[in-house]
Amino acid sequence: MSAQATNAAGATDAATDTTLLEVQHLTMRFGGLVAIDDVSFEAADKQITAVIGPNGAGKTTVFNCLTGFYKPSVGRLALHHPKGTYLLERIEGHIIARQAGVARTFQNIRLFAQMTVLENLVVAQHNDLMRASGYSVAGLLGMARYHDGERRAVELARYWLDRVGLEDRADWEAGNLPYGDQRRLEIIRAMCTNPVLLCLDEPAAGLNPKESGELNELLLFIRDEHRIGILLIEHDMNVVMGISDHIVVLDYGKKISDGTPEFVRTDPNVIRAYLGEEEEDEDLPPEEGASP
């Protein structure tokens, strides 16, 4: 990709045709500990890219760098947005979601448990509602632009509730939903921000096989109907292999494999990282009766 001029907001003037995210030479150090060591990969637009690896491989650290929780020690994180290319490492973490269109979920559920299901989805649209209200002035004056914005927010929330079968529970407190429904509510709450890139940190954690199947259907729907890129961290290989277009494998902070599910499934480096490798002693004689 050719070099491009960058504006003060961290955006350049053009985007590539298919690449949504470019991670180049990402390194994250915590004192003497190197959590991510010179990792590079790309994630395509309108595809599901999974980042997998054993525990402690550095997967969540990658997400934390992309979403502004950490500033990388080294690296370029380029998100090719319809408005331009945003260099995420240059943007303050608290505005990455609003400015660059990156949404994420976490390993542990972080819903507003005492708000209703509907309120969780409406509050996710806070930035749009604030603009519609003229940053409270139009809301205080009861102007039509605020009421129009509020109506659009509720319509979008109800669209997603209908999509995941939660419309009849819109008035429930979110904390009273079954665990699997809470997981899906987190994902559709992120979608209510209209992201360009959706980052999901172990969305299948704790789900039973039926719930995992429903999750797969939701993520494929988001990819195919809403045409955005999804970056996925997941330990459930049935989910990863069932829906991913592209897989990146990390181990001890380094990238050890990168390719299609079919390629990664049979990559000796991946098999070794997950299962270990038995050492063979070539000096041992063959077993009695065995062919030399």
Task: Please outline the helices and strands.
Blueprint: E1 11-12, E2 19-30, E3 33-44, E4 48-52, H1 59-66, E5 74-81, E6 84-87, H2 96-100, E7 102-104, H3 117-123, H4 126-132, H5 137-140, H6 144-163, H7 179-191, E8 197-201, H8 209-226, E9 229-233, H9 237-243, E10 246-251, E11 254-259, H10 261-266, H11 268-275
Helix pairs in contact: 3-7
Structural write-up:
The chain is of the alpha/beta class and 292 residues long. It has two domains: 8-101 and 195-275, 3-Layer(aba) Sandwich (Rossmann fold); 111-194, no CATH class. The chain is built from eleven helices and eleven strands. The strands form two sheets. Strands 7-8-9-4-10-11 form a six-stranded mixed beta sheet, with helices on both faces. It has a five-stranded antiparallel beta sheet with strand order 1-6-5-2-3, with helices on one face. Helix 8 (209-226) links the parallel strand 8 and strand 9 (229-233). Helix 3 (117-123) runs parallel beside helix 7. The longest helix is centred in the middle third of the chain and has 20 residues, at 144-163. The N and C termini lie far apart (54 Å). Residues 1-16, 278-285 and 287-292 have low confidence and may be disordered.
